[in-house]
Amino acid sequence: MEQLVTAPRRLVFLGSGTSTGVPVFGCECAVCTSNDPRNQRTRPSVLLSFPLGNLLIDTTPEMRLQLLREKIRKVDAIAYTHNHADHLFGLDDARLFPKYLGGPVPVYCEAETEASIRTVFHYAFVEKATTLPPGYVPKLQFERVAPGVPFQVLGQNVLPLRLEHGRFQVLGFRIGNLAYCTDVSRIPDESWPLLEGLDTLILDALRHEPHPTHFCLEQALGVVERLRPGRTFLTHLSHGFDHGPTETTLPPKVALAYDGLTLEF
Questions:
Q1: Phi-psi region of 155 (alpha: psi -120 to 50; beta: other; left: phi over 0)
Q2: Any bridge partners for residue 164, and if so which?
Q3: CA angle 247, 84, 63 (to 5 degrees)
Q4: Does 3 fall in a domain?
Q5: Sequential pLDDT tens for the chain (265 residues)
Q6: Do the domain assignments include residue 151?
């Protein structure tokens, strides 16, 4: 049986904002005009660094800029939470990844996300695209995943988690005692046991007011109270949160994520 690698692991928040990003185009609120760099939020994504390579979760429209900002020189695999634009539309820039991998990029996702990728980036899958050298179109190797069924990537066990995002079904991911749960408005009954015993929980908290497809702050804190992880970082944040003042109101061991925040787990 393949031995999984358990050496120290690192997570960096490439983006911690909502689908509009922060600042919001045309907005002149106190957060959008803030000088606090933690209020500058690109679309939501994280990169997990393991001894055997880097796993990227979602490809945001700012993916290229996020990776350059964090000096990430190689992505070895991609996993998708779902197929919405703010999590998907940077994929074209992944056309450079195979140059450093020596082959297609492994992509771990559900069937619906694969279908969206094949539609939105259709030019990467036409027959003539297969003859192009690396760097011209994304070259991908799809690996189907299912909630509750672990898969192995880069020497790690990754457990997909079923989450509900309004009327959409999406995935969260658990790696060891860390779970990444963005874009969620409800945790189904079957997923609660899979979130027990966490050291680190990363959880959606869009704004103060309730929202039909995301947890608001009160709902997210209710999840934290039920699961009682060692620490929690809230992500997918709107311009409703001014980073510094908001953090002073949060319970112990709960913090707002920000772009560039790095964790070891």
A1: left
A2: 169, 186
A3: 70
A4: no
A5: 355 656 689 999 999 999 999 999 999 999 999 999 999 999 999 999 999 999 999 999 999 999 999 999 999 999 999 999 999 999 999 999 999 999 999 999 999 999 999 999 999 999 888 788 878 899 999 999 999 999 999 999 999 999 999 999 999 999 999 999 999 999 999 999 999 999 999 999 999 999 999 999 999 999 999 999 999 999 999 999 999 999 999 999 999 999 999 999 9
A6: yes
Q: How many beta carbons lie within 10 A of that of residue 222, not counting itself?
A: 12
Judge whether 60 and 45 are in contact, CB under 8 Å. yes
The CATH number given to whatever domain includes residue 173 is 3.60.15.10
Q: Residue 75: inside a domain, yes or no?
A: yes
104 contact partners, CB below 8 Å, separation of at least 6: 98, 139, 140, 141
Q: How many domains does the chain have?
A: 1
The Cα–Cα gap between 77 and 56 comes to 6
- Write the pLDDT tens digit of every residue in 171-184: 999 999 999 999 99
The residue segments making up the domain with residue 82 are: 10-264
Residue with tokens 């709902």: 219
**Cα–Cα nearest to 206, from 29, 44, 59, 34:** 44
Within 8 A by CB and 6+ apart from 11, the residues are: 46, 47, 48, 49, 178, 180, 202, 262, 263, 264, 265
In a domain? residue 2: no
What is the C-alpha to C-alpha distance for residues 18 and 61, in angstroms, rounded to an integer? 12
| SS3 state of residue 10 | strand
Instruction: With CA atoms as reference, report the closest residue to 62 among 84, 41, 79, 82.
Output: 41
